[in-house]
Design brief:
4 copies of one chain form a homotetramer. With about 375 residues, the first copy, chain A, is α/β, with parallel strands linked by helices. Chain A has 2 domains: about 130 residues, 3-Layer(aba) Sandwich (Rossmann fold), CATH 3.40.50; about 240 residues, Dihydrodipicolinate Reductase, domain 2 (2-Layer Sandwich), CATH 3.30.360. Chain A is built from 10 helices and 17 strands. In chain A, the strands form 3 sheets. Chain A has a 9-stranded mixed beta sheet with strand order 16-15-14-13-7-12-11-8-17. Chain A has a 6-stranded parallel beta sheet with strand order 3-2-1-4-5-6, sandwiched between helices. A two-stranded antiparallel ribbon of chain A has the order 9-10. In chain A, helix 4 packs parallel to helix 5. The radius of gyration of chain A is 21 Å and the shape is globular. Chains A and B meet through strand 7, strand 8, strand 11, strand 12 and strand 13 of A and strand 7, strand 8, strand 11, strand 12 and strand 13 of B.
């Protein structure tokens, strides 16, 4: 089988998840090529070497510029903070590499558009890693909507609730720094909800919004007395209008105690409704109107006939978080093989960024803003 | 025991619930007086006579004007559509009657203020029937928040989802007519969520909003070919800012298939969270941060030590919808006995109306509006 | 409307629930007659007078013998502990009264048979108050099974879990005394599960069983140092074989902390399954096999087309524990009017008692026993 | 790092799960050695070669006898049907290999004892793969019980419900053949519940039981008109007595429509309760008695401080079925390194088998049987 040589830039949380996906995909699915974990790239030599060993990469490097230029590399997989996405992706595209990039695609619309222009010009395959589209239950939701099982859509209701920074003593990490992360809950997690909204319902045309920072200063390091400002949002709230008359809400916060990773949504249509929560990601709540004995049913999305599940286990044997990356990598490989652009592409990344941008503008202008 | 003579104006859905409350309150609670279901009032003689028999009223009348003026009446209980509240309440107050009024207090802020002025001038006891404050689980939520169990509050998230008019053939009833109902989902059900938000969190200072009518014409009567315009909102969405930095959302819709009466909310604070859903109104979901083994716990609010539950059954034996009216009537009677104004008063009704009004203004101006 | 004069014997927990049912039934349902709460009977004059006032009875009496013999009484409603059921019921039947009797029908099979013989000989209408048959969700379960929606039945799984005596300092009340209560969890709550099993599935032919008493001595009174033996079971476990090849389990305990009133069951058939829990009594979990997107659906049994619900509130507005007694009384009144024996009759009471007896014999013989 | 050379016998469902565990363990956990997937063994050359490629084994073999005798093999991992466990395990032990064996350990007590004798005599490390002990939520349950958080234990209630053979046209596969599988639901899934009961509560001393076969003949092959007898149980029901006065039930069935892989249990003690369901394996339901505001809390067992979770993802990011095998393999490797016998050992396998045997005897004798 032909090889697909991968270079991964960044090796922390997302790097661990992506590495696993590249290692596992061929064990559970028929892939058009064999992925080779060629080289992982990071700034600190010792750490990147340790990561290479731990995560299963053949080589390590401290220069992403050299790495993306290597002749033997087919794919560049970007797992770094958002402020570096654009430069790496553009260079990779110019070097003729297919590019998989973590979300949000960039920290600004301008950067995202520059990235889209570069991959388009280069004719390479590109994909943004909104992995939650490839939760089997979410893919099933998409299928049911496309089949018309919900009828005409009326409502989208998205929540992404976390609680990891409720403690005011939690330090000011890079995700709380605008220069690195671009924004807070908005870009980190609302971007997922917005991607799901676009995926399931369609394009967003107008938004109202509010951004809130509850804790304005935090220790620079754990336990440190030195404080640093938090210049991103702790919570992002928005109202949405979609093409075609659907209305929606998206709320994202890191201040909802007890909600560890509550990425949930509900869609209501004229014939049915569905609801999902990532904390129970193997389940889809489905309501089909059939008279008084109807009710939300808990579909265990673990059957071989459900999206992606033919690769895994018998019904009722659940999969976990990292499997969504395996599905993403699988579809990225299939797209490369078939020479087409998968979804969500960098174009989706740009559109997502435009919604985030509109929310920021609306939060500032105190008015509805067009996307 | 001294008697408390009640006159009830209106006798349909709310009239049935209020009548039950007046009949039952003394059977399950120690009341300061004995309520007498003296007279029920309605426009159609035959129907109001039938209602009197069915619901247990001594007499019936077709004139609310005469009724509220009767010397032997102590309390006027208003269960009519919103467009008639003001006239009845003002007349009742001028006649020196204590007034219990269904929600929303009125169809406009001006009407509501006129009502408040009248009861204040007359020195009578007044209460608006936001009965959901007196769900034991909601009263427990209030107690926990007041005790500081949730710490500093950050988020309120209110949903009131119903599905009774999703069918476009459902007729244009009075609740879909602006002249009678004032507004649609906004005044009918969002008003409950806003009342709960104010009760649990505090005053709302600013709102953004959107009102949507999905089905713009409906049959004038069931099965009729004649269509009538729907001039109220099918769905009302809002973002809220509260005094003290809490942020919130309230969404109300009659287009969420499968959600029969999903009046739910969640509050997140620095030490804990709580969540409630009227469809499981005997339960409160409570999260108290105590480390990794914490989790949302389902409190069965059925213990004699829980609010109002000493009157009913042993733990685990649940109560239903109509009990909330019994608790409301109980507290109204206690307030009359003690000569104080209960909560929510007409002042709360005015404040609620001002929030509804701000949402309407914001929906129209496409900007945040001060309450 | 013709009157139906009721005498109620006993006035504590069950008396409160039955009184409410007699008062409420005519307010929410069309009844063939008007129930009159004529006389309540108890041993202590002061307490029974207080009960009469509180619960709405015209008169009180301290002699059940005189009461059941009164010419103006149509119905005797027995709400006393089990050791007194037989004498009261037999006397009432001989006096020509219709008899409604709390469960379990008696403390022994012999007593139950004597009662059945008496009501049969007298030709009066008789009913045992297994009120949970008349939870709307349970009646819906019955309807679905009878319609064949579950296909051939395979399994019944009944649990009745409570936790009110886990504390060893909880006193030795009458329910823990064999002479009064007959048995412990077995007769008090397993009897409900067994009634539901018989109602939904059919007759039980053979049982294996185990009875366990965890706390063998308790304070005679709250806080008392004087101990009294507990000579009934704290927990009753059984395996069941039904006619027609269905197999089942019933477990009842008062030692399941956190389970306040967890009367739950599940039925599995060749086409579907259903599950119920009294703590969420307005819901029925229904599974109909329709391929991989099937799932247990939560039916909110609150629609006017659901059993008994046409009397109450709109969809999503739940009812509570005491409503099951109202439904029982309604059906009892209809049966009297139509001159037929309702279900569950004293014959059901005898059959239930025979199952309880078989479990006791099996627990003692350490072998399966025929019912 | 030193190598640990593994030979795996069998390569279907369990072989896929075990292979994944051996491949993944070193990527997520610090292991004392590096597992090498040396050789996989199967009866059909073509299939085992394909399996080796797919699952990542260096070599394949069609002779387990030769394989277990190879000098370069350290560990034999047995993933075959139950009727072959004993011969393979005994040979492996005699060859000085550490042995990991799928459950149930054997098809009879005699076989299991022969296996235990062999590994003990050989002084090799042995473990039976009851992987559900290593669900983090189950390991947390164990920790909480050991810490005394539940107090004195009273009840264990285990269910293992599946539905994969409800269709009578489902063919008579090897799991429905007594000669190969030993028993049906009893050995396949009740054995898991019994292992969890022993793990969490203690030794079982006496049982009552019932075995039921609902569909007595099935197609020999899918769609075949030729029928073959089903000589194992479709459902196994039991009552249990434990050392120390705990009572329990275990029910296992493959005829519970809608229950895909419902391996659930509940434990009740004097201070608290806990409940678990494998279909939501990242959650533990925990009740701690703290007064009326207590309730079952849903602990998301996804925190780094929870058992095994430090290896995986941030809180709220769930793991799946196969991870339990990774944890099992990790603990097996640690035991080998430290020269101690892990739990559950072959001794546990023997004890488990004795309980299964007692249930079979009790089902046959219609009496309680000592284990």
């Amino acid at each position: 089988m032909k090889k697909l040589n991968v270079a991964m830039i960044g090796h922390r949380f997302m790097g661990k998840a992506h590495s696993n996906a590249w290692r596992q995909v061929g064990r559970f699915f028929e892939t058009p090529s064999e992925p080779v974990l060629k080289v992982v790239c990071g700034r600190d030599r010792q750490e990147v070497e340790r990561a290479a060993r731990q995560l299963g990469w053949e080589e390590s490097s401290t220069s992403w510029q050299e790495t993306v230029a290597r002749a033997d590399i087919d794919v560049v997989d970007i797992c770094t903070p958002g402020d570096t996405h654009a430069d790496i992706a553009v260079a990779a595209a110019r070097a003729g590499k297919h590019v998989l990039c973590e979300k949000p695609l960039a920290n600004t619309v301008a950067e995202a558009e520059r990235m889209l222009a570069a991959v388009t010009a280069a004719g390479v395959v590109h994909m943004v890693c909104h992995n939650y589209r490839r939760v089997p239950a979410v893919a099933l939701a998409k299928r049911l909507i496309e089949e018309g099982r919900l009828g005409r859509l009326y409502h989208f209701r998205g929540l992404y609730l976390q609680d990891w920074i409720v403690d005011p003593q939690f330090p000011r990490v890079w995700r709380l720094e605008k220069a690195k992360a671009g924004s807070g809950a908005l870009g980190d997690i609302a971007s997922h909800s917005i991607d799901l909204a676009r995926y399931l319902v369609g394009e967003i045309t107008e938004v109202a919004g509010h951004l809130q920072t509850f804790i304005k200063e935090r220790p620079l390091r754990p336990g440190s007395g030195e404080l640093a400002p938090v210049d991103v949002d702790d919570a992002a709230l928005s109202l949405l209008k979609f093409e075609g008359g659907v209305v929606g809400t998206v709320e994202a916060t890191r201040f909802a105690l007890g909600r560890r990773n509550h990425n949930s949504f509900e869609v209501n249509g004229s014939k049915g409704s569905l609801a999902f929560n990532l904390e129970r990601m193997n389940e889809l709540e489905l309501y089909i109107e059939e008279g008084p004995d109807s009710g939300f049913r808990t579909v265990q999305v673990t059957d071989a006939r459900h999206p992606y599940m033919q690769g895994w286990w018998p019904p009722g044997h659940i999969i976990g978080y990292e499997h969504t990356f395996t599905h993403t990598v699988l579809d990225f490989m299939l797209a490369i093989d078939e020479g087409r652009i998968p979804s969500p592409s960098f174009e989706d990344g740009v559109k997502n960024q435009k919604v985030l941008d509109a929310v920021e503008r609306a939060a500032s202008s105190r008015s509805w803003e067009r996307v």
